[in-house]
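Why should sequence recovery work at all? Because a backbone constrains its sequence more than one might expect. Tight turns favour small or flexible residues, buried strands favour hydrophobic ones, and helices have their own preferences. The token representation captures these environments compactly. In the example below, the structure is given first.
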């Protein structure tokens, strides 16, 4: 079963739940601060933070490693199944689309954050993610100290902030510090993410679900043609899907523009 945790307002007993899904090489805790703010503002709601397959503490979930299987994993998690709203970033956004398909639209709303529903065979917009996955394959360890791993990542041209973030994936062993995630499995998830076409779910959302398709204005995940197609897809949905551009955000929308994204998520829970 997937590792997960719950976030609630102090003393609250939520009746409804929001499910948060992270991107490649992330984990549920990436959303903890954002989720805490949300439940403090909407204490009748709780948040479920999940480590998706081959990430965080969910390393023992067996292959095949695809976005569809990542969504099916959630169907075995009662805390996820009872969610009325799902928020997914990047890879997690596409898993959210798979989830609404697997549940026949039996959610109120999905907020898909800078996640292109279509295929991107060249990896446009995810070049740095591919590079980092290959870097982890190379730097699996062992390292004598955590600082040695961080230095090795920085020596390959990566930023101190990214090196520190990647170090969250280290575990201490008798031989030294090793990268605990299987980079080959993560690469398989990323390649499936980039190959899969889910535009039909934006054009014709199943069941009762509504979609908020958030595009980061400074991200390259959506090019001009993708943005035009998103407008067309939302028009085909009859208002069930809506495009939202957050101009001042890069791909990490919840870091770059947390207030703007919080407004979108609040609208989703308020309308659920």
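From this structural description, the recovered sequence reads:
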């Amino acid at each position: 079963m997937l590792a997960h945790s719950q976030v609630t307002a102090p003393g609250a007993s939520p009746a409804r739940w929001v499910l948060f899904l992270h991107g490649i090489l992330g984990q549920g805790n990436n959303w903890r601060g954002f989720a805490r703010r949300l439940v403090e503002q909407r204490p009748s709601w709780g948040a479920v933070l999940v480590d998706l397959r081959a990430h965080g503490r969910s390393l023992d979930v067996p292959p095949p490693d695809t976005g569809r299987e990542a969504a099916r994993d959630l169907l075995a998690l009662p805390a996820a199944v009872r969610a009325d709203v799902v928020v997914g970033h990047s890879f997690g956004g596409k898993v959210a689309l798979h989830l609404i398909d697997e549940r026949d639209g039996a959610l109120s709303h999905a907020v898909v954050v800078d996640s292109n529903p279509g295929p991107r065979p060249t990896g446009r917009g995810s070049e740095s993610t591919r590079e980092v996955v290959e870097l982890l394959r190379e730097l699996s360890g062992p390292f004598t100290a955590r600082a040695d791993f961080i230095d090795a990542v920085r020596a390959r041209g990566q930023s101190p902030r990214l090196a520190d973030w990647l170090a969250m994936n280290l575990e201490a062993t008798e031989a030294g510090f090793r990268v605990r995630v299987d980079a080959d499995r993560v690469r398989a998830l990323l390649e499936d993410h980039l190959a899969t076409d889910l535009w039909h779910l934006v054009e014709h959302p199943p069941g009762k679900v509504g979609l908020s398709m958030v595009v980061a204005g400074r991200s390259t995940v959506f090019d001009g043609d993708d943005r035009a197609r998103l407008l067309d897809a939302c028009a085909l949905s009859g208002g069930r899907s809506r495009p939202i551009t957050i101009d001042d955000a890069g791909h990490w929308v919840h870091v770059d523009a947390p207030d703007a994204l919080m407004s979108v998520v609040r609208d989703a829970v308020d309308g659920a």
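A few observations help interpret the result. The beta strands are 4-7, 16-21, 45-50, 85-89, 109-113, 170-173, 176-179, 210-216, 241-246.
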